[in-house]
Structures are given as C-alpha cells and as structure tokens.
Amino acid sequence: MATAGGVRARWRDRARSTVRLDAHLLAPVAGTVTAVPVVAVFALGMVSGTTLGAIAMAIGAELVAVVSLIGSPRLPLPLAVLDALAMGGAVLAGALSADRTWLHVAVLVVLCAGAGLLVALGPTMGAIGNQSVVAFVVFGRFAGSAAVAGRLALFVALGALVEVVALVALRLPATLGYQRRRLADACEAVAEMARAEAGRSAIAALQVVDEAEATIAPASLFGRRDVGELRGTLDLLRRVRLELTTIAGLRDRLGELGATTHDLDALREGMSVALVEVATVLRGRPGRGARVAIDVPPVPRAPDSPSDDTDEASLLASRYRSHLAAVAGQLRSMRQLVNDLAAEGVRGAWSPPRPTWDRVDLDRVREALGVVRDAARRDGPARRHALRLAVAVPGASLLAAALGLPRGYWVALSVAFVLKPDYASLVHYGVGRVVGTAVGAAVAALVVGALHPDAGVTTALVALCAWAAFSTWSASFTVSVTFVTALVLVLLAVATPDPWATALDRLLDVSLGGLIAWIAYRLWPTPARAGVVAAMADLADALSAYATGTLDATAAVPPDAAALRCASRSARVAWARAEVAVGRSVEEPGSSRLAAREGRGLLRATIRVLRATHALRLDAERGVRAPGVDLAELRSGVAAALARLAAHLRGEPLVAAAPLRAVVERVSDALAAAGAPPSIAAHLDELVDAVNTASHVAGLAPPPVATD
Are 195 and 330 part of one and the same domain? Predict the structure, then answer.
C-alpha cells in the first residue's frame, strides 16, 4: 500500500507537470500555420456580416487544428476530412433534434458511446470522436428548420475543411531545421540509452526515434533534395538502437556470471559520446564546406573464433565486442552523412506539393472496425470509457438544464473534454483544463472589457490567441488551454456583451464538468488488472511472431528483412503498450498492487525475450546461421509456449506445449555436432529461459512432461 508521503509526492509531481512549460517544444511556425485558417474564416464571416457563421467557421477550424496537433506531425488527409464531415453531421443532427429533448438526448448517448469506443484505435481517432460530441453539444442547441440546421452544419464543416486544406498546403516550413532538431533529439536519446544501466527500458529512446521518423515521413518532403541524408542517418540510428538493445541483454547476462567488461564498457561510452557529437552537428549550422570531427572509437578485432570448450562468459563477451564493432561502423556512416549535410547546407528551393488523396485501404478500414467491435464486446478501457461518456455527458447536459445555468452546455462540453479512459490522464488534463480556463477566462474578460474591441481589433485578438494556443500545445497543455479559453471568449464577445459574466460562467461550468467527470470515473473505474493482462497477452502474441520468424532465419532460411522489421516493430510497440498499461495500473484508484508487481515482472522477462530474439536476428542477418540443424521443434515449442501464456492471461483454455528446456538441450547438442557458431546456442538458451521465466511470473504451471 502506498504511504501518505508517497501519495503527496505523486500529487506534487502531477501539479508540477500540469504547470510546467517546456520551452524547447514551443512551435511558433507551426502555430502560425495552424492559426491562419482560423483567423481567415472568422474575418471572412465578419466581413460578410454573418456573425454566427463567423463563430461557427472559426470553431470548426479550431477543432480540426486541435486534432492535427494531436496527430502531429502528420494528420492523414482522409482522417482530417472525416473529422470535418463528422462534425458537420453532428451539428446537423443536434440542431434538428434540439426542440425534442428525448430525441436530442438519445442521439447524444449514441454519439458519446461511439466516440468512446474510438479510443481503441488510438488518440487521433479518439479525438475525432470527441470533436463530434463537442460539435453536437456546442451547436446542437440551436433549434431550427432543416434549412437553418443545414446552414449551421455547413458553416462548421466549411471552417474545418479550410483548416484541412491549409494544413495540407502549408504544413512545413521552408527549411529542415525542425526535422534536424528532432533527429538530434533521437541521437541524444540513443546516446543516453548507451550510457544507461543494462536493465533500463529502451522504449523511451524508441519513442523519440519514432517521433523523429514521423517528421521526415510526410509525402510533402519527398520533393526535397536535402532530406536523403536525414533519412539515411535515421536508418543507421535505428540499427544502432537495435545493436544497443542486444548489447544490454548481453551485459545483463555477463553481470549474472560475475564477468568484468571494463574495456568493452569504455568503448560503449565512447560510442555514446560520438552519438552526442552527431546530434551537435545536426543542431548546428556549419558554414559551407565545413566538416566536424566526430570521434568513433575503434574496436579491436576479436580473438580467434571461440572453440566448443570456451566458457559462457568469454562467448558472451565476444558477441558484445562484435555488436560494438557493428555500432562503430554505423557511426562512421552517420558521420559521413551528417557532415555532407552540414557542408552542403540547404540545397535548392522547396515549395509545397499539390495535395494528394491517398487511396483508402479497405482492408485497414475493416481491421479498424473489427478492433472497435472487439472493444465493444469485452470489458476493457474502451468500452468502459464509452459507457461513462454515454452516461456522464447527457447527464451533465440535463443537470445544467435543471439548474437553469445560463451557458450550461459548457458543463457537458467540459465532461467530454476531461473524461479520459484512464485516471492519470483524467487528473492531468482535468487539472490543466480548470487552471487554464480560470486564467484564460480572467485575462480575456479583462482585455475585452477594457478595449471594447471592434471587428478589426477582435480579429487581431483572435489571431494572437490562436497563434499562442497552437504554438504552446506541445510545450504545455495548461498554457495552451489558457489561450484556447481566451480565443473562445474573444469569439463569443462578438455576440455577448458582458465578458465578465461569460468568463465567470465558463469557469463555474468547467469546474462543475470536471467534477462530474471525476465522479463518473471514480464510480466505475477502468479495471487496472484487466488492462495489464490484455496488454501482456497481446505482447505474448507479438513476441511469438517475431521469435518464430527469427528462428526461421537462424535455420538458414533466407531472412525476409521487411517481414522481420515489421515483426520487430510490432513486438516493440506491444512492449511499449504493456509498459504504459503497467504504469497506469499504479495510478488507478484502488488499483491492485499485485497487478503492478506481476506486470513489472512480466516486463522484465519479456524484454529478455525481445533482446534474445534481437541477438539471433542480427546474427542471422550477418550470416551466422545453423544450416543442417533442424529448429522446427524448438520453433513450434516457443510459439506454443507463448500462445499458452497468452491464453492463460486471457483466461482461455490452455494449448498443449512441450517442455522447452529439454528441446533446447537437444538443439544445443545438434548445433555443437554440426559445428555451428556457439553464440547461436547461447542465444537460444537465453530465449528459452526468458520464455519460461515469463510463464512462471504469470503463475502458469509448466506443461506436463510427456511419458512413454
């Protein structure tokens, strides 16, 4: 059980994270690009004399802008258009049903349930569903004829589509400064990984590398002639990260044997320094023709190939040295690429490409629908979130109406914004939204009350607030919400004469909505253990696919590099999700500490499975294989053991599995007889031991030994 001091420390950390501003994440250029369409549609509406239309278009554009920031740096065009159309449809449904309370509430219940289930597809789709609820609540209160409802829906959709077009056409600045900085961040994260303790998770570094890749991936960059070096550097960095992950596994095993590796550890530290130097070059702007020295420590040649009687520590140290040599080679290639990039500077002009519509992949659509359908059928975070939304948002709307609150729709709106699938996010975003709303409402009311702005000054204030809100989105949620609140109040000041009353109403309604969201979650929280168990079961399936593919490559089957990369990435993503699930389980109110302990034990065991598989894969890709040795029994045994683990976690009937230890011993004897490199047997032994450990931690009894 957590102590009172530990609880207070966690709340202090939450408070600090809520108000912290990470200055290096400020994005003024992206903020400008994102804010321009919001300002443009508002100004156009005001010039045309359509006040409500100006507000509707601006809010539609602002909502799409928020989704683009959540899906940053690349929001797929089909999803952006889907968001615009979904908001327009929600406004239409809300306005048509506004004068019939029972129908209005029924539609809102269905919409909230659907939006809640979309979180199963990730944060971007969850945000799109949430935007539809917001559009329904905000604009669905304007009852009118079909023509009036259609016109209002058209305004919202039009503003959203203008934002979409602007984001596609103006997404990137004219230089690769942002992309270079994010790649430098990734190099520094991998350098930190090289210096870290062997047992430390590498997922944080992987996330930074993935974020760097996302900044280089957009199709709008393919026309640039100076992006090849960045992509090449990123590819090499991924290989370095994979080598270091394998090295971490070898260091763990050497530590268990009590072996000393001071010389090799010093070389690894030198690799870390070289990565930091690469990051320095990427961040800097050397003059044309300048070259920067990046010292890559040479790795002495390994001694003669180990014989069959070489002890395990020497064998593992030899593999450690081999992987360090591979890292050194990759760093030398990175040095050449970044120096070429630094010497040549920005080459050639760049202009935005013509927007293109990627063909909708029907298979992926069907897969997504299957995920949502599965989420609706089982008791998990997505279904609980959907049901909480379906009760809390309409309930908040009815409560506000019963209390006669003048702007009661903000209560339901706040519930939709604050209520999250997990408790940690709910607290973080809930506190940030209330604090940001309080500050933003006070500042906006003060400015509007003092200036009494006309249309021109109002447009300028809209531009300033929108730019500040979008520029600070990544740096601080609370600061961004402060400016979003100010933006909304400035927009509404066109139609509401009393800014102080509006600001006070908004603060009270947001506070009440946040309280309702918190109560709804506490009454029916997401089960901590269920989230951990589901994530671990998915991880076991992903590890099974990666391990069996790698064993095929080890058995002299020509490796399918693309398939192995895909399986490796799926396993890493599954491990990251499992790590997040374990972390969230600790934050859940009344969560079982046993679930957290089990989860951490499984994380430690499964990272060993991942590292051992990495080691086998890297050896296979270098030609270290076992031709003539039958690994089929071991392959099927590993697959069956991991499938048995997944079935046990899901509470399904257990599948048959052979005892892996006996199988790997027979395989080791066959490898020795065939003269295969001893490292293969060592990696296979570690793989089997890690799989057996994971099963033991999960409380799974070993499979019965077959008898004659």
Answer: yes
Domain that holds residue 440: 23-173+374-523
Q: How far apart are CA 546 and CA 533, in angstroms?
A: 20
Q: How many domains does the chain have?
A: 3
Final residue of a domain: which of 301, 329, 344?
344
End of a domain among 306, 327, 344?
344
Count other C-beta atoms under 10 Å from residue 282's C-beta: 26
Same domain, 32 and 136: yes
Per-position b or e across 567-591, b if 16+ CB within 10 A of its CB: bbebbbbbbbbbbebbbbbbbbeeb
Residue 191 backbone dihedrals phi, psi, to 5 degrees: -60, -40
Residue type present at position 708: D
C-alpha distance from residue 657 to each of 478, 550, 573, 644, 702 (Å) = 52, 20, 26, 7, 9
Q: Which pair of structure tokens corresponds to residue 82?
A: 């889907």
Q: At 464, is the pLDDT very low, low, confident or very high (cuts 50, 70, 90)?
A: very high
CA 594 from chain center: how many Å? 26
Do 150 and 203 sit in the same domain of this protein?
Answer: no
Cis amide prior to 73 (ω within 30 degrees): yes
Is 498 found in the same domain as 400? yes
Could you read off the pLDDT of 87-129 as tens digits, one per residue?
A: 899 999 988 888 888 898 999 999 999 988 888 777 778 888 8
Q: Are residues 201 and 225 in the same domain?
A: yes
Q: What number of H helices and E strands is found in the chain? A: 25, 0
Q: Is residue 268 located within the same domain as residue 206?
A: yes
Burial of residue 553 (number of CB atoms within 10 Å: 0-12, 13-18, 19+): buried
Same domain, 136 and 231: no
- Answer whether 202's CB lies under 8 Å from 241's CB: yes
Write out the two tokens for 689.
């031991």
Residue 613 sits in the same domain as residue 519: no
Give me the pLDDT at residue 498, please.
66
Residue 650: pLDDT band (50, 70, 90) is confident
- pTM for the model: 0.62
